[in-house]
Each structure stands twice: as C-alpha cells, then as structure tokens.
Design a protein that fits this description.
Arc Repressor Mutant, subunit A, 2 domains, alpha+beta, two-stranded antiparallel ribbon
Length: 238
C-alpha cells in the first residue's frame, strides 16, 4: 500500500466522522455557502451547538471541493448560533481546556483527532460516561421547574413580542425592502442584526427564505462579494 493511499483513506474517514456528527443537525447550502440548522439542532445545549457548528465547518471542502473558512472568531460563532458573548466565552474556555476544540490567533476550530470525543460529548457520554451530564441535567431540570413556579405562565402575546411571529417578521422585512434598507447592500448578518435591533430574535438559518423570496420576486438583487475576508452574498434594492 502506498502512502498516498493512506492519505485517501484518512480523508474518507474524516468525511465519515463529520457526517456522523452533524447529519441530524445541519444542512449545507452550497450555493450560498451557508449552514442551516434542523429543528433537532435547537434541542441541543449551547455547548453541543458550538461543537456541531465547528465540526460542520470542517465539512465544507467535501461539499464545495474548495477551501472555506473553518475557524471563526467568537463573535462569528455567537452571531451564527445566537449565543450572547457573556454565555459563549465560558463555554469556549471549557471546551478548549478539555481539548475538544483548539484556538489559533483568536479563532476557534476542531481537529479531526477530537471527533470521537466530540461525538461522545454531544451524545452526553463524555469521558465520565455521562455521569456529569446526567447530574447537570437533573440540576437544570430542578432549576427550570423552580423558575417556572416563580415566574408563572408567560402569555402567548408576550412570546410573540419577544421572538417575532412569522407574519410580523414578513411585514417587517417587506417594509425594509420598500423603505431603502437594502439601498447600500446588506449581508445575511446585517439583516439578522436589524431584526435583533428591533427586538425580534431570529436565527440566521431562518432568514434566507425572506431574502431569496425577494430576489425571486424581483425586489432585490444579489451578488457574491468579499466581506471582512469572507465570500458573502450581498443583497441590494433593484
């Protein structure tokens, strides 16, 4: 067996390991170079979401057959996953100290040598056989129950204001198109930031459908540009 055959086998094993970790949680949009998340992804803890996302980034070369950024900064991770910085930083620190992720020049990534440990971590089986995870889950359940008793039921109208219903989001988005928000060109991140500014909390994976619908309807145009060192779709008013 030649050494190049070993390289090929390692590549196939790496691709298989990535697929095994992310298959239930993400979908790749090769055209937009974006990662979307499945409903099952929302059930994960923030720590598991970070791991799945970083592993998914390692899968881009197998999807588009070219290099793609796989080591985001904390701010990029927070924006993509909707995790506030104050919550995100301790999680990244813990994962790094346990050698599940690595850092380089302020950016975070996962190495293929950690895939087995990451898969066990996501499944709640870590190095402790899941004992710590179960204990944390039990404490979290008790804490949640206590908080629910203190806070009481939240009205449906309050939930709608906090998260933004589908109809409300559509109306907001259409208004921005009509009033010139896209005159100078906006990225997916810009649109998410605008929603957050108006107290509508929405993950990036839920936004492309509004942008693409506007493009198909002829209200917006889009072209691929380099933004902050990355290739991004930029949307503009026609």
């Amino acid at each position: 067996m030649a050494l190049k055959d070993l390289v090929a086998q390692k590549s196939a094993l790496t691709e298989g390991a990535i697929e095994g970790i992310v298959r239930d949680y993400v979908r790749y949009d090769a055209e937009q170079r974006e990662i979307g998340f499945t409903p099952k992804f929302a059930e994960l803890s923030n720590k598991a979401k970070i791991l799945v996302y970083l592993v998914a980034l390692q899968g881009w070369p197998y999807i588009v057959k070219e290099s793609a950024p796989s080591d985001p900064k904390p701010a990029d991770i927070g924006d993509e996953l909707g995790i506030p910085g104050g919550t995100l930083r301790p999680l990244l620190k813990d994962l790094k100290e346990r050698h599940l992720i690595a850092t380089k020049a302020g950016r975070y990534l996962v190495r293929s040598s950690s895939f087995d440990a990451i898969q066990k971590e996501i499944a709640g089986l870590g190095n402790d056989g899941g004992i710590a995870s179960k204990a944390k889950s039990s404490r979290r359940s008790k804490k949640t129950k206590t908080n629910q008793q203190k806070v009481g039921a939240i009205s449906k109208s309050s939930k709608k204001v906090a998260t933004g219903g589908s109809k409300e989001i559509t109306l907001k988005f259409n208004k921005w198109v009509e009033t010139g928000f896209f005159a100078k060109g906006k990225t997916l991140g810009d649109v998410q930031a605008r929603f957050h500014q108006e107290a509508i909390i929405i993950p990036q994976s839920s936004i492309p459908k509004y942008l693409l619908r506007a493009v198909r309807d002829g209200r917006l145009s889009r072209d691929m540009q380099e933004v902050n060192g990355k290739r991004r779709w930029v949307y503009r008013s026609k």
